[in-house]
Design a protein that fits this description.
The complex is a heterodimer of chains A (114) and B (115).
Chain A (H helix, E strand, L loop, with lengths): L3 E4 L2 E4 L5 E7 L5 E8 L3 E10 L2 E4 L6 E3 L9 E3 L8 E8 L9 E2 L3 E5 L1
Parallel strand pairs in A: 2-11
Antiparallel strand pairs in A: 1-3, 3-8, 4-5, 4-9, 5-6, 7-8, 9-10, 9-11
Chain B lengths: L2 E4 L3 E5 L4 E3 L1 E4 L5 E7 L6 E6 L5 E3 L5 E5 L4 E6 L8 E8 L9 E2 L3 E6 L1
Parallel strand pairs in B: 2-12
Antiparallel strand pairs in B: 1-4, 3-9, 5-6, 5-10, 7-8, 8-9, 10-11, 10-12
Classes of the chains: A mainly beta (114), B mainly beta (115).
């Protein structure tokens, strides 16, 4: 199993550009989430999904879109990048009750918006 | 909604000394509690978790944590730290089991072990 994979590892965008951060898991996990990590702020939840076709907003959803067309993939879209979105982004997945909701994290994407 | 407070943003400690990293949470429903560790420039790794049962849970690398329901705390301890324990530690709470949201994290505690 590759676990949770994220691409790209690093990205630099100009203000106003759009892009998609990719996240995939091969563990057949039902639940997937996106977090952003900023210094001194811990990890904050952006969006999450409890299954294919079902998504919901987390604590900091503005400026981001998600969709979940398959169990494996959960891409995060930045619609119009802003410097405030400079951060490290982590995707996570969990099987849910069967695994006591333990989350598995991807390696992260470091995004810089200039 | 759930929230997590990590009471110390930075904890310096000498090698082989004991350490306690403090975590308090609030929730109106039953929760699962987790501690994650993040080494420099890496992702997050699970240290330990409390689901139910014994309030003292043991994790990897010699860490343990105690769940205290009355004080809504889940402090992390290690009796003797090593240089390699230098990292950032995150306490997290999950209320998935009650149909609520995924993990809510504290802001982290940076543990620096001094030789």
């Amino acid at each position: 199993n590759a676990g949770v994979t994220q691409t790209p590892k690093f990205q630099v965008l100009k203000t106003g550009q759009s892009m998609t951060l990719q996240c995939a898991q091969d563990m057949n996990h039902e639940y997937m989430s996106w977090y952003r990590q900023d210094p001194g702020m811990g990890l904050r939840l952006i969006h999450y999904s409890v299954g294919a076709g079902i998504t919901d907003q987390g604590e900091v959803p503005n400026g981001y879109n998600v969709s979940r067309s398959t169990t494996e993939d959960f891409p995060l879209r930045l619609l119009s990048a802003a410097p405030s979105q400079t951060s490290v982004y982590f995707c996570a997945s969990t099987r849910g009750r069967d695994s006591s909701y333990e989350q598995y994290f991807g390696p992260g994407t470091r995004l810089t918006v200039t | 909604a759930q929230s997590v407070t990590q009471l110390d943003s930075q904890v310096p400690v000498f090698e082989e000394a004991p350490v306690e990293l403090r975590c308090n949470y609030s929730s109106s429903v039953s929760v699962y509690l987790f501690w994650y560790v993040q080494y420099p420039n890496q992702g997050l790794q699970l240290l330990l978790k409390y689901l139910s049962g014994s309030t003292l849970v043991k994790g990897i690398n010699g860490f343990e944590a105690e769940f205290n329901k009355s004080q809504t705390s889940f402090h992390l301890r290690k009796p003797s730290v090593h240089i390699s324990d230098t990292a950032e530690y995150f306490c997290a709470v999950s209320a998935w089991g009650s149909g609520n949201t995924p993990l809510v994290f504290g802001k982290g505690t940076r543990l620096s072990v001094i030789a």
